[in-house]
Design brief:
single chain; alpha/beta; Spore Coat Polysaccharide Biosynthesis Protein SpsA, Chain A; 10 helices; 49% helix
């Protein structure tokens, strides 16, 4: 049997937390009865600077049930950093760590299959959605576009996988050795390279509360992943610049030929259009390059990715 910790980032999850706790408690008891996990396996709730009473609920839960612990971050650091904080907290206490969201969309029963795959030698087990029939057409279209865009930009990512996964203790330690500030764990975890497996499950509807990833955040998240893990956009700009240069050479030859055969056309509209088009491309290129420079700027500062303010076991924690 292995000691398993389940890390659950929480941001304003007071509506769903009681039900999440109930189901996770039942899952831990069931796994213990099947002798899949040890009796001291736990759930770690990470409060990512919530503005509601999420932390007070976590404190109350941990007092009533020794299988639950809480970690409070000093401020809202974002889902990826909150998840990393939970992993760093659990790494020296568990044989393997499962990460999942608090909204109960991830099928908790898939944890059984993840543990089975782990016992067979897989150190990274991905929870992958089997289908998206419950999603609206717009949600399904944008989600599939999200993964395809990342793939096309050179980001190594598991299709239809979010942050529901099992990592062995060794895999977590290797993940923590990645020191970049701009985190995109869905792209970093496959870079670890250990033996991996996939567990397929059907994603449920959110039990309560609102989604933390509307379209605007999803687009920002995709852009973060692309610019954090790939230089392909810069190469595309270079290719686009070369194409524009070649087109300008061809047009120059055409204009010279027209001049010698006596065809002269005054083309203010085409001239202004081309100026605006090239100016827009230049600004776009500068903006993308600036995004990379900004990330370099943040990385060189080496600021902590999160600061743990308090834990329910009253241990003093530091920053990472």
């Amino acid at each position: 049997m292995k000691r398993i910790y389940i890390v659950v980032p929480c941001y304003n999850e007071s509506d769903v937390l009681p039900e999440t706790t109930k189901r996770l408690c039942q899952k831990l008891e069931g796994l213990k009865q099947k002798e899949k996990i040890t009796g001291d396996s736990k759930v770690i709730y990470v409060d990512d600077g919530s503005g509601d009473d999420t932390w007070s609920q976590i404190q109350a839960i941990s007092r009533k049930n020794p299988h639950f612990e809480g970690v409070k971050l000093s401020r809202n650091c974002g889902h990826q950093n909150a998840l990393l904080a939970g992993l760093s907290y659990a790494v020296d206490k568990a044989d393997a760590v499962v990460s999942m969201d608090a909204d109960l969309q991830d099928d908790i029963n898939a944890i059984d299959q993840m543990i089975d795959a782990y016992e067979k030698g897989s150190e990274v087990v991905y929870g992958v959605r089997s289908k998206r029939k419950k999603d609206s057409f717009f949600k399904r279209f944008t989600a599939q576009g999200f993964y395809k865009l990342l793939k096309s930009m050179g980001v190594e990512i598991v299709f239809n996988h979010a942050d529901y996964r099992l990592l062995s203790n060794r895999a977590v330690k290797e993940l923590l050795s990645f020191k970049e500030v701009n985190l995109f764990l869905r792209g970093i975890v496959p870079m670890i390279g250990f033996k991996s497996a996939k567990v397929y499950y059907e994603r449920n509807e959110r039990f309560a509360g609102k989604s933390k990833y509307p379209l605007k955040k999803m687009l920002a998240f995709a852009f973060e992943g692309i610019t954090s893990l790939s230089v392909k956009p810069i190469r595309l700009i270079s290719a686009l610049g070369l194409i524009c240069f070649l087109i300008s050479i061809i047009m120059l030859i055409v204009f010279v030929a027209q001049y010698f055969i006596g065809i002269t056309v005054s083309g203010w509209a085409s001239l202004i259009t081309s100026v605006w088009a090239l100016g827009g491309l230049q600004l776009l290129g500068i903006g993308i390059i600036g995004e990379y420079i900004g990330k370099i700027y943040l990385e060189t500062k080496q600021r902590p990715r999160f600061i743990i303010e308090q834990t329910t076991d009253t241990e003093t924690e530091g920053a990472d």
